[in-house]
Amino acid sequence: MKNTGNIWQGDRISHHVDWQVHLASPADMPQVADLFLTSFGETITHLYGTNIPRKEALLEAVQDFFTFLHRETPRAFWVTHKRHEKGQKLCGYLVVSTDLILLWKRAIWGGYLLRWAAKFLRGTYGFDFRALGRILINKISFWRASRFQPYRAQILSLAVAEHYRCQGIGRALLLKGIAYLRRQNSFRIKLEVRPWNKPAMHLYQSCGFSQAGVTRDTQGEWLIMIADTRVK
Ligand SMILES: CC(C)(COP(=O)(O)OP(=O)(O)OC[C@H]1O[C@@H](n2cnc3c(N)ncnc32)[C@H](O)[C@@H]1OP(=O)(O)O)[C@@H](O)C(=O)NCCC(=O)NCCS
């Protein structure tokens, strides 16, 4: 789809014969966490090296984080389900935020951070202080990059299960998120993408994002991409 006048109207393309984009529910969070872990395997390997925790422990950590995002911004979290003979399968998700700084504040003042720290200290998440240090450094780099940008709205996380890629699901989710942000009067949107993630860069560029800068974390470079959705 070209960058034409209606590219931001995500609601128009949310239905398809085979799959549907709709708001996520708490019951979707385990599958969202699972999809995150399978889609971002290289981040997990980078964070934990050879010391990768048990999958159940990792799932619990990731699920706790997505549950926080969902509780705080339930209308900014979508999933895609695909119908098949055994019922419905979650094959994609997207979460966006109108204000990342506010979200961090909610994590602190809403007591989430304390609960995560307690679980970490009890060993529930299965990772050590070295991995925690990397996670914290990465979050701080991410936060600093957000803080000094006038583009407060953010595409936080997007993934489509490998088997279902290249069918337009990623684009449908992204346009849904952009349409929501526009309804919230958040027209300037930002995201970060690894420079080597060509499928994601292609998708973002074709939806009107362009490169605005570069930031880094312990895993390497992030390209900062922005879109001003008032333009069209
Ligand atoms: C990025 C991602 C969400 C795209 O999802 P998707 O459902 O495959 O995307 P779509 O089918 O909507 O395709 C969107 C565009 O990207 C293009 N694209 C998809 N895979 C591609 C690839 N491997 N190489 C180049 N372009 C690709 C499609 O051709 C399409 O462009 P077009 O309409 O001009 O042809 C998916 O690849 C993914 O989940 N990757 C792993 C997680 C990830 O990297 N998330 C983004 C983090 S910033």
Features:
disordered N terminus; single chain; seven-stranded mixed beta sheet; alpha+beta; Aminopeptidase; 232 residues; 8 helices; binds coenzyme A
Small molecules in complex: coenzyme A
User: Largest sheet, order of strands side by side?
Assistant: 1-2-3-4-5-7-6
Judged by helices, strands and strand pairing, the structural class is alpha+beta
- The N- to C-terminal Cα distance equals 14 Å
In terms of DSSP E residues, the strand content is 15-25%
Query: What is the helix content?
Result: 40-55%
Number of strands: 7
Average residue-wise pLDDT: 87
Q: Unreliable segments (pLDDT under 50, ≥5 consecutive)?
A: 1-6
Choose one word for the global shape: globular
CATH-derived architecture: 3-Layer(aba) Sandwich
Helix-strand layout with pairing:
Elements: E1 19-23, H1 29-39, H2 41-48, H3 55-72, E2 77-84, E3 87-97, H4 100-109, H5 112-122, H6 129-147, E4 153-160, H7 169-183, E5 188-193, H8 198-206, E6 210-217, E7 220-228
Parallel strand pairs: 4-5
Antiparallel strand pairs: 1-2, 2-3, 3-4, 5-7, 6-7
Helix pairs in contact: 1-3
The structure holds coenzyme A.
Structural write-up:
The protein has 232 residues and is of the alpha+beta class. It has a single domain, classed as Aminopeptidase. The chain is 44% helix and 24% strand. It has eight helices and seven strands; from the N terminus they run βαααββαααβαβαββ. A seven-stranded mixed sheet has the order 1-2-3-4-5-7-6, sandwiched between helices. Helix 1 crosses helix 3 (55-72). It is globular, with a radius of gyration of 17 Å. Residues 1-6 have low confidence and may be disordered. Bound molecules: coenzyme A.
